[in-house]
């Protein structure tokens, strides 16, 4: 039985920037329900939580098993090495520095300046050579207070810059942009039912500390870093809404 959402199929290729986290896993399911062929692109940038790289492959395989239609649409995966961030900036995401929500300038110590912008640029260059114009990424406005390159304005500006600078017609899709973290779980359920929710819980990785030894109801993690707390609160809100019979994806 197909779990894909009954949306009009776009008979084009799409590229998902796929980290192995909750948000990018949800976006991959979203893309598989909408595009004829979907490829994935990941980045090894010396991240502290490089366990997410192993999660990427397990998620891809499990998503293909979840739905035969998704399996037929899922194309190859590529992993790029962009290990230059340690040369550019000292952050807790690429070092053993303490993880804190309030770092210099009020931003979390895990903020890597321009990380998402660089990812989008690399993805666009890679996609250009493959004649792919649809790029999908899991950034959202609810993360924007600590990560300004997740803002809607940042993504729109990047799309304009790419199309001007490469004389192309890229479309940057951000399915989670206006959803709360509860809403992201609800979107996953609408795409693949509770089977997809359970898959994301078990196989995706969010924790900045790279902790996979502790399992909570919301998944694996240290339970104390900002990423874990955000994922936990979103899942708790999602479960509470389901218990109360509430429906609809909550916006930020």
Keywords:
Rossmann fold, two-stranded antiparallel sheet, alpha/beta, 252 residues, disordered N terminus, 5-stranded parallel beta sheet
Can you characterise this structure?
The structure is a single chain. With 252 residues, the protein is of the alpha/beta class. It has a single domain, classed as Rossmann fold (3-Layer(aba) Sandwich), CATH 3.40.50. It contains 8 helices and 7 strands. The strands form 2 sheets. A 5-stranded parallel beta sheet has the order 3-2-1-4-5, with helices on both faces. The chain has a two-stranded antiparallel ribbon with strand order 6-7.
Unreliable stretches: 1-6
Count of discrete alpha- or pi-helical segments spanning 4 or more residues: 8
Percent of residues in helices comes to: 40-55%
The computed structural class is alpha/beta
Tell me the overall shape: globular
Q: Numbering strands along the chain, what is their spatial order in the largest sheet?
A: 3-2-1-4-5
Write down the oligomeric state: single chain
CATH architecture, please? Answer: 3-Layer(aba) Sandwich
**Top CATH class:** Alpha Beta
The topology string of helices and strands comes to EHEHHEHHEHEHEEH
Give the CATH topology. Rossmann fold
Strand composition percent: 5-15%
Termini separation comes to: 33 Å
Rounded to an integer in angstroms, the radius of gyration calculated over CA atoms is 17 Å
Largest sheet: 5 strands, parallel
What is the strand tally?
Answer: 7
């Amino acid at each position: 039985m197909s779990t894909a959402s009954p949306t009009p199929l776009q008979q084009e290729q799409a590229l998902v920037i796929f980290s192995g986290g909750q948000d990018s896993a949800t976006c991959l399911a979203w893309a598989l329900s909408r595009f004829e062929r979907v490829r994935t692109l990941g980045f090894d940038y010396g991240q502290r939580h490089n366990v997410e790289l192993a999660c990427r492959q397990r998620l891809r395989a499990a998503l293909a098993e979840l739905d035969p239609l998704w399996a037929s649409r899922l194309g190859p995966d590529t992993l790029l090495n962009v290990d230059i961030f340690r040369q550019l900036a000292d952050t807790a995401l690429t070092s053993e520095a303490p993880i804190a929500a309030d770092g210099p300038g009020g931003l979390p110590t895990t903020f890597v300046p321009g990380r998402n912008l660089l990812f989008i640029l690399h993805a666009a260059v890679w996609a250009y050579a493959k004649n792919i114009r649809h790029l999908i990424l899991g950034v959202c406005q609810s993360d924007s207070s600590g990560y300004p390159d997740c803002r809607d304005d940042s993504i729109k500006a990047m799309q304009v810059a790419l199309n001007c600078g490469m004389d192309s017609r890229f479309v940057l899709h951000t399915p989670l942009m206006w959803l709360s973290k509860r809403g992201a779980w609800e979107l996953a359920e609408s795409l693949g039912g509770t089977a997809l929710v359970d898959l994301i819980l078990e196989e995706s990785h969010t924790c900045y500390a790279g902790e996979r030894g502790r399992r909570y109801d919301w998944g694996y993690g240290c339970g104390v870093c900002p990423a874990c707390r955000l994922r936990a609160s979103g899942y708790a809100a999602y479960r509470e809404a389901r218990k109360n019979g509430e429906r609809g994806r909550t916006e930020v």
